[in-house]
Amino acid sequence: MKANKIENKSGWLVGGGVLASIIASLCCVGPLILTVLGVSGAAVLSKFETLRVPMILLAFVFFGLAGFVLYRKRNSCEPGSICADPKKFREMVIFYWIGLIIALLGITSSQWVAWLF
């Protein structure tokens, strides 16, 4: 049972990193998306600018821990655990990298969103 709890940590950490990056990008992407959708008063989301740096740091911490847990445990894998199954380990790695790409898009949104609109 203990091995399963450790293996499931990487999914929670990746989810936390994605959530932190979404919160970090609310100040930049949020008003633009809501304005395009026709919602007035979307500039209120610019107040989230104060949360941007702490949430970016939190996202990096979450993804760093998730990568550490994911790749470190591969070396010390017990037979019968999730990481011992190559298919499930590959799914966890794919989930990690997709989450990291989504997070990086959210974090860097203030630089590239101006080119789109």
Give an account of the 3D structure.
There is one protein chain. The chain is mainly α and 117 residues long. The model is unreliable at 1-6 (pLDDT under 50). The relative contact order is 0.19. It contains five helices and no strands. It has helices at 2-25, 29-36, 49-75, 86-107, 109-116. The chain has one domain (2-111).
Whole-number total of structural domains: 1
Strand content: under 5%
Largest sheet: none
CA gyration radius, whole angstroms: 17 Å
Please trace the helix and strand order, writing H or E for each element.
Answer: HHHHH
Class by helix and strand content? mainly alpha
What is the topology?
Layout: H1 2-25, H2 29-36, H3 49-75, H4 86-107, H5 109-116
What tags apply to this protein structure?
single chain, 117 residues, mainly alpha, 5 helices, 76% helix, elongated, disordered N terminus
Give a brief description:
This protein is mainly alpha-helical and 117 residues long. It has helices at residues 2-25, 29-36, 49-75, 86-107, 109-116.
